[in-house]
Design goal:
Elements: H1 9-27, E1 44-47, E2 50-54, H2 67-80, H3 88-92, H4 95-108, E3 112-116, H5 119-130, E4 136-140, H6 145-153, E5 157-161, H7 166-175, E6 182-187, H8 199-208, E7 212-216, H9 231-234, E8 244-248, E9 258-262, H10 264-273, H11 275-278, H12 285-300, H13 302-322, E10 333-339, H14 341-353, E11 356-357, E12 359-361, E13 371-376, H15 383-403
Parallel strand pairs: 2-11, 4-5, 4-6, 6-7, 7-8
Antiparallel strand pairs: 1-2, 3-9, 8-9, 10-13, 12-13
Helix pairs in contact: 2-12, 4-12, 5-6, 13-15, 14-15
């Protein structure tokens, strides 16, 4: 326990409670730690002088270290400086913000777009701005934490329906027919499982029950759909069917920040009432310039998506040959199910010992009993690097079996029930 002698009684009680929570998380194999990288975000990373092959970045198209994007960031810094200096509605809004917003709107097939500093701020701000007192926010059970927090922090009532279960959603809607407003919220691609939401069915249900549909396409934009325009586009849905589209820029785009795209009235309203937009410093204009360069690459270089799909197919074939327990996914997010947090952590450590970095995902990020290795693929990975990953996983299988781990990577004796 920490020395509390120099603290007031109130602060000593607080710190004691915090220390107890940290100790409990550590005992449960759930304590998160920083991985301190010493180089650019790329498939090989330097950590404490050790070179690791990484399969845990969301840089799906390999653009985070692209020379065109770097050059655009440098040009933006020369033209606008480093920081924006104020919120968008004071003096922080620059011409390049308008240019990026217009280009993102065109990319997603929508009238207007509004920039945010992060996906978290976009989701919390948009849900809060659109939810009336006593309104209903209906969330997929596996939505990202930012979406769930947006619902919980809103003035409305937040309900989670069973994952991708449209019958569960309709039941909740029928029971809340008197709610003054209904907002259905879902990820396009679920960040820990890699599966897609049933967007076409959700759009039909939203129309039938006079609800609005909001899709966070953080893991779909750049990867799926024509020119990488995302899951909504891939599902053939219009702006009218999915009026609220959230996109993040720190994944396939390789930069940072987020945006919401939709009808001009929606965007104009959010610019006035989304508190996480109004009351925060604007995205650095140099970052907006870098994202414009990234967007050109996303649209113009289809080979990156083609390469990514080759890697996804190759990984799933190799994993099937090894008998790994994978969740169904056609996206760069591939979940190797481990069951217990202990098994997931141990498998990650054994992979690290072979020079391969894969994150162990444990509660509370995922439900109890569903800990996993979350493998993410990038168009920048080579065939040789994919083979190295599969060989490392095969080696880990043998080591876990010899140690008598309570959960195994293989289907034999699988503990996980999805």
């Amino acid at each position: 326990m920490p020395d509390m002698s120099n603290h007031s009684r109130g602060s000593a009680l607080l710190l004691s409670r915090l220390q107890s929570s940290l100790a409990q998380r550590r005992e449960q194999q759930l304590l998160r730690t920083h991985l301190v990288r010493g180089n650019a975000d790329q498939v090989t990373m330097s950590v404490d002088g050790e070179e690791l092959l990484g399969f845990c970045s969301n840089d799906y198209l390999g653009l985070a270290n692209h020379p065109d994007v770097i050059a655009a960031l440098q040009k933006g810094a020369r033209d606008y400086g480093v920081g924006s200096g104020a919120s968008h509605l004071i003096t922080g809004h620059c011409r390049v913000h308008d240019q990026l917003s217009e280009e993102l709107a065109a990319f997603t097939g929508r009238e207007k777009a509004l920039l945010f500093c992060s996906g978290y701020m976009a989701n919390v701000g948009v849900i809060n701005a659109l939810t009336e007192p006593d309104g209903l926010v209906l969330q997929d059970a596996l939505n990202h934490a930012s979406l769930l927090d947006g619902g919980w922090l809103s003035r409305g009532r937040s309900i989670r329906y069973a994952h991708s279960d449209t019958d569960s959603l309709e039941l909740e809607l029928r029971q809340a027919a008197a709610a003054p407003s209904r907002l259905i919220v879902t990820d396009g691609v679920f960040s820990m499982d890699g599966d897609r939401a049933p967007l076409a069915l959700l759009a039909e249900i939203a129309d039938e029950h006079r609800a609005a549909l909001m899709v966070d396409d953080a893991h779909g934009l750049g990867v799926l759909g024509r020119n990488g325009s995302g899951t909504v586009s891939a599902a053939g849905l219009s702006q009218a069917q999915v009026p609220i589209l959230i996109g993040t820029l720190g994944k396939a785009f390789g930069t940072a920040g987020a945006f919401v795209a939709g009808d001009a009235v929606l965007i104009d309203y959010l610019a006035q009432f989304a508190r996480t937009y109004v009351f925060t410093t604007a995205m650095p204009p140099a970052l907006a310039e870098a994202t414009r360069a990234s967007l050109k690459l996303v649209v113009g270089e289809q080979w990156r998506r083609d390469r990514l799909q080759q890697l996804i197919s190759g990984f799933r074939r190799g994993a099937a040959e090894l008998g790994l327990v994978l969740l169904p996914s056609e996206t760069p997010v591939q979940a190797v199910m481990m069951g217990s947090a202990e098994a997931a952590v141990r498998a990650s450590q054994l992979l690290r010992a072979q020079g391969v970095q894969v994150s162990a995902i444990r509660p509370p990020t995922v439900p109890q009993g569903q800990s996993r290795l979350r493998i993410t693929l990038s168009a920048a990975h080579s065939d040789e690097q994919l083979d190295r990953l599969l060989h490392a996983l095969e080696s880990v299988q043998r080591q876990l079996f010899s140690m008598g781990q309570p959960a195994a990577l293989t289907k034999a004796g699988q503990e996980v029930r999805i």
